[in-house]
Design brief:
single chain, alpha/beta, Rossmann fold, seven-stranded parallel beta sheet, five-stranded parallel beta sheet, 15 strands
């Protein structure tokens, strides 16, 4: 029976990890819950089917989920619960913590694991490598820290009555001091959680033309994203809007690619969208191999026509 400990500072991601862990036959799943405030409500939320125990550490040092304090806490929980595998949500914070924890516990570390399988006391996972051009398959015997990207799995559901174990944090390392916080630019949007994304590519001839997407995006309640040429190269949009390998990975219900050719570095960031629509004037553009619906045509004609048709259908 594999003993699996899961942790993410984001409760929804922790639930996705529980779902990934529950694919192991007869897994014994524990959840690590850390924070500075009252943990009761989150503990209830995490008490889903198959969760046998919740290890809680409440301490002011965990207020900002700084990697040093979180690593100390997870090390303590791991020494107590002795898991075979530790799954960590691949958030920014999670990616800071996983390698630190692996070094502390003298374990291997597999990052960005996809399609995780548990077989005969070992795990096997796929990892996208070489800029999205290849998949490597990695196997690890028990004793590994593994990160899994947010939203790679559905959230676990159901309920359980796990044993709640409360531990006092013993600090081993010094924590960096937060000297200030700055809100994000107001132009920034939450791309990764968007339900619909309309993205612009190099098919747009000039920056001013991007305004034709505003109407389509608002009709679809979508946020506007972009391919890399429009962000890093031309600076028409902030880099926070970039979808792809070196940008954000999105997984919306609807993704509309407008004037985007569909290079692998872009596809890596959006191919898990539920429904993909592509608009491109080149019928041989690679994006048409990836989409559910493809419109071959000039975006300057297709986008206004599509927006008009959607408006008359939805009344928005
Ligand atoms: C290490 C690395 C990381 C990268 N990371 C990213 C990343 O995160 N995200 C990303 O997007 N790219 C990334 N890239 C760049 C990537 O390789 C491609 O260059 C980029 O995705 C191409 O963007 P595009 O499709 O908008 O432009 P293009 O490839 O130039 O495609 C433009 C498309 O618009 C179509 N078009 C032209 N005019 C019209 C019209 N009037 N109507 C309709 N269609 C029209 C054309 O047929 C064409 O298919 C990365 C590259 C590297 C090397």
């Amino acid at each position: 029976m594999a003993k699996i400990l899961v942790y993410s500072e984001e409760p929804d991601v922790a639930l996705q990890l529980v779902n990934a862990a529950s694919k192991a036959e007869e897994a014994q799943i524990s959840v690590a819950l850390l924070g500075a405030g009252d943990l009761k409500e989150i503990s209830k939320k995490l008490s889903v089917s198959k969760v046998a125990s919740v290890f809680q550490i409440q301490n002011e040092a965990l207020k900002d989920f700084g990697p040093e304090a979180v690593t100390d806490a997870l090390e303590q929980i791991s020494l107590e619960s002795k898991p075979d595998f530790i799954l960590i949500g691949g958030t920014k914070r999670g990616k800071e913590v996983a390698p630190r924890l692996a070094v502390r516990l003298k374990l291997g570390c597999v990052t960005d694991a996809q399609n995780l399988r548990f077989e005969n006391g070992q795990t096997t996972a796929d990892r996208v490598v070489w800029g999205g051009n290849a998949i490597s398959t990695v196997s690890t015997k028990s004793g590994a820290v593994i990160t899994i990207a947010p939203r790679a799995n559905e959230k676990a559901v159901g309920s359980s009555q796990p044993e709640i174990k409360t531990i006092d944090l013993q600090r081993k390392t010094r924590t960096g001091k937060v000297v200030g916080k700055k809100p994000k630019d107001s132009g920034e949007v939450n791309m990764k959680d968007a339900e619909a994304v309309v993205s612009a590519g190099r098919g747009f001839k000039k920056k001013e033309d991007l305004t034709i997407l505003n109407d389509l995006a608002s009709t679809l309640h979508a946020v506007i994203g972009a391919s890399r040429p429009l962000t890093s190269d031309l600076g028409w949009m902030p880099e926070s809007r970039q979808v792809g390998l070196s940008g954000t990975t999105v997984k919306p219900k609807l993704y509309v690619a407008v004037g985007i050719s569909g290079q692998i570095q872009h596809l890596t960031g959006m191919r898990d969208s539920k429904l993909i629509v592509a608009i491109n004037s080149d019928k041989n553009a690679p994006i048409f191999q990836e989409c559910d619906y493809g419109i071959v045509g000039d975006l300057y004609q297709v986008v206004p026509a599509l927006t008009k048709a959607l408006k008359s259908k939805t009344g928005r």
